[in-house]
């Protein structure tokens, strides 16, 4: 079992022992089970890209699509082989799918091209009114398809995702995903799941069976009107392999007049692996950095600085020509990224207005605040300034928080340790006043100043002490940015520091 696990990074032995058409629990909310949908829903092409996928997981995906999709709604299944090397994915697969009652087309990529370009090939060959993209190790559940297609019928510019349930990579147990999470991202442009905010619950008047507007999507599983997919610019074909394409498409959909939703009455399971079994030309990091640089340059406007400062190596990556994508943005009359942050993702970890972004350096020691492991409840350190971003990147925001991503400097008592806690936006222990003349950070609730503390365990740690004018309490902020750049509201010169 351990040897087979290495091949696909999941328990292949367990998968092979499970029926290809196994039964699954109905994990939908009770209110979803009684919903009815129009008879004239659009049909869909299912596009599944695979590369050296295991036989049992690939075919279980296909069987679940066929067995749990109304036949009238299933135009075809398109399997795109991204240059697999395993023999059983050649003629054996072709013979097997011919026996199935739904039209199944296998497209072979001539060379390894990656998820993005393989999906583009599959989409180009599709005939359905809607394109539904699935990964090659999924399982569709009862009633998964109708709510997705019904939402697109209501508004063809809505891109919809199912709730992604978890299939254990070890036991292949099927576990229901949550309808109380939606997609977001952090400063490093990593996709993250976050709790659905109260404002979204209020918009739906507490009805959890209604779709959730999500700022971003995971990208592996979604449905989109085929014509709208073309109008909105499909994928950025300049991106390589995989990574970042989900955020790029999410930003583009919202900024260019569409919407992105998680349809809570649709459930599809997915095998979540702890590591990838695939190798990428140039290495995973290089590929994802290139893709993220492309999306930042085209869609994020001045807010791309958050990404570049915390990941300075990204700016050294050759990201190719993005002029065509910028022309697309102009043609579609897309809104700025500030609009996206203000209206679609106000909960974003990227503050919409801020005074500074970069290192916070102590005058006396010439050392910088360092959040070390960027983990919640950990103390902040003070180390030699390395100028490499990462742990030494902080933003001093217009809400007067000192934050890095979703963590803020927090202190509960005089002389107490300064730690990183989740930003709560309630001021209190996380409210800091910076005085540009004295170069001090006043912790308002304790009326004390951020100070370089004594060395503990060989590490300097900041604390808060009574303000006394000591150089140990003086801090310089780098990369000052005028607030009016980020808002239509005018701010007087006293509202920012130079």
- Annotation field: number of helices: 14
CATH class of the largest domain: Alpha Beta
Strand order of the largest sheet: 3-2-1-4-11
Give me the CATH fold name of the largest domain.
Spore Coat Polysaccharide Biosynthesis Protein SpsA, Chain A
Full CATH superfamily name of the largest domain: Spore Coat Polysaccharide Biosynthesis Protein SpsA, Chain A
User: Mind telling me which CATH architecture of the largest domain this is?
Assistant: Alpha-Beta Complex
Based on CA atoms alone, the radius of gyration comes out at: 25 Å
Helix content: 10-25%
How far apart, in Å, are the first and last alpha carbons? 61 Å
Total number of β-strand segments?
A: 25
Shape call: elongated
Description of the molecule:
This protein starts with a helix and ends in a 21-residue tail after the last strand. It has 14 helices and 25 strands. The relative contact order is 0.10. Helix 10 packs parallel to helix 11. A hairpin with a 2-residue loop joins strand 18 and strand 19. With about 500 residues, the protein is an alpha+beta fold. The C terminus is likely disordered. The chain has 2 domains: about 270 residues, Spore Coat Polysaccharide Biosynthesis Protein SpsA, Chain A, CATH 3.90.550; about 130 residues, Trefoil (Trefoil (Acidic Fibroblast Growth Factor, subunit A)). The strands form 7 sheets. The chain has a 5-stranded mixed β-sheet with strand order 3-2-1-4-11, with helices on both faces. Strands 5, 6, 7, 10 and 12 form a 5-stranded mixed β-sheet that branches.
């Amino acid at each position: 079992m351990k040897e087979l696990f290495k091949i696909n990074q999941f328990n292949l032995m367990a998968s092979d022992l499970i029926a290809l058409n196994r039964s699954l629990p109905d994990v939908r909310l009770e209110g979803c089970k009684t919903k009815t949908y129009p008879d004239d829903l659009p049909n869909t092409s299912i596009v599944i890209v695979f590369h050296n996928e295991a036989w049992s997981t690939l075919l279980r995906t296909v069987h679940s699509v066929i067995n749990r999709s109304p036949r009238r709604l299933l135009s075809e299944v398109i399997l795109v082989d991204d240059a697999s090397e395993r023999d059983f994915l050649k003629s054996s697969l072709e013979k097997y799918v011919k026996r199935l009652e739904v039209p199944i087309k296998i497209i072979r990529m001539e060379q390894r091209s990656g998820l993005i370009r393989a999906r583009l090939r599959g989409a180009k060959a599709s005939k359905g009114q809607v394109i539904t993209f699935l990964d090659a190790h999924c399982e569709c559940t009862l009633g998964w398809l109708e709510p997705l297609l019904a939402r697109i019928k209501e508004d063809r510019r809505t891109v919809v995702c199912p709730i992604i349930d978890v299939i254990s990579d070890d036991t292949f147990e099927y576990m229901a995903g949550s309808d109380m999470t939606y997609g977001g991202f952090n400063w490093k442009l990593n996709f993250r799941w976050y709790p659905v905010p109260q404002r979204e619950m209020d918009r739906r008047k507490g009805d959890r069976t209604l779709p959730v507007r999500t700022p971003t999507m995971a990208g592996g599983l979604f449905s989109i009107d085929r014509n709208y997919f073309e109008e909105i610019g499909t994928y950025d074909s300049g991106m390589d392999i995989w990574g970042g394409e989900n955020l790029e498409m999410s930003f583009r959909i919202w900024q260019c007049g569409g919407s992105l939703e998680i349809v809570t009455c649709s459930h599809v399971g997915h095998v979540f692996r702890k590591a990838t079994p695939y190798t990428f030309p140039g290495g995973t990091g290089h590929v994802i950095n290139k893709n993220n640089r492309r999306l930042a340059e085209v869609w994020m406007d001045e807010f791309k600085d958050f990404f570049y400062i915390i990941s300075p190596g990204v700016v050294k990556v050759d990201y190719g020509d993005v002029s065509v994508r910028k022309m697309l943005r102009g043609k579609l009359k897309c809104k700025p990224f500030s609009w996206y942050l203000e209206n679609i993702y106000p909960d974003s970890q990227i503050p919409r207005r801020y005074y500074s972004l970069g290192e916070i350096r102590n005058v006396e020691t010439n050392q910088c605040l360092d959040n070390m492991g960027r983990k919640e409840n950990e103390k902040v350190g003070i180390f030699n300034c390395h100028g490499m971003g990462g742990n030494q990147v902080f933003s001093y925001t217009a809400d007067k928080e000192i934050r890095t991503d979703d963590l803020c400097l927090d202190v509960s008592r005089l002389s107490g340790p300064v730690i990183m806690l989740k930003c709560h936006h309630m001021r209190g222990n996380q409210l800091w006043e910076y005085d540009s003349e004295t170069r001090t950070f006043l912790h308002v609730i304790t009326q004390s100043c951020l100070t370089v503390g004594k060395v503990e365990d060989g590490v300097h740690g900041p604390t808060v002490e009574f303000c006394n004018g000591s150089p140990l309490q003086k801090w310089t902020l780098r990369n000052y940015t005028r607030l009016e750049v980020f808002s239509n509201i005018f701010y007087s010169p006293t509202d920012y520091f130079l």
